[in-house]
Amino acid sequence: MAKTLTDIKNSLDLNLGKRLTLKANGGRRKTVERSGVLAETYPAVFIVELDQDENAFERVSYSYADVLTETVQLTFFEDASGALALSGQ
């Protein structure tokens, strides 16, 4: 994806409201995979509203540093058909 925290935030700002799949490090060799919509971006964190049928809670937040260090990997989809628009790794 991007090289700096500012670049990551700007890239996420352009994708507000888009569907995404995220893979996050859950600790102890666990990887958590969730899907939802990028809801909001703030100066230090971004919020993802999760699909309710798959998850026990509504929203999760991650910092831009999580994306920079690849603790969280984001894959955006262009539309409901599932066409890949942007992959962040």
Explain this structure.
By secondary structure, the protein is of the alpha+beta class. The chain has a single domain, classed as SH3 type barrels (Roll), CATH 2.30.30.100. Helix content is 16%, strand content 48%. It has a 6-stranded antiparallel beta sheet with strand order 4-3-2-1-5-6. The protein is globular, with a radius of gyration of 12 Å.
Task: Please supply descriptive tags for the structure shown above.
alpha+beta, 89 residues, globular, 6-stranded antiparallel beta sheet, SH3 type barrels
Oligomer: single chain
Number of helices: 2
CATH architecture: Roll
Separation, N- and C-terminal Cα atoms: 6 Å
- Beta-strand portion reads over 45%
Please tell me the total number of domains.
Answer: 1
Poorly predicted residue ranges = 83-89
The CATH class is identified as Mainly Beta
Query: What Rg, in angstroms, do the CA atoms define?
Result: 12 Å
Q: What's the arrangement of strands in the largest beta sheet?
A: 4-3-2-1-5-6
Mean pLDDT: 85
CATH topology (level 3) name: SH3 type barrels
Helix content: 10-25%
Series of secondary-structure elements, N-terminal to C-terminal: HEEEEHEE
Largest sheet: 6 strands, antiparallel
Protein name: ABC transporter permease
GO biological process, one term: regulation of DNA-templated transcription
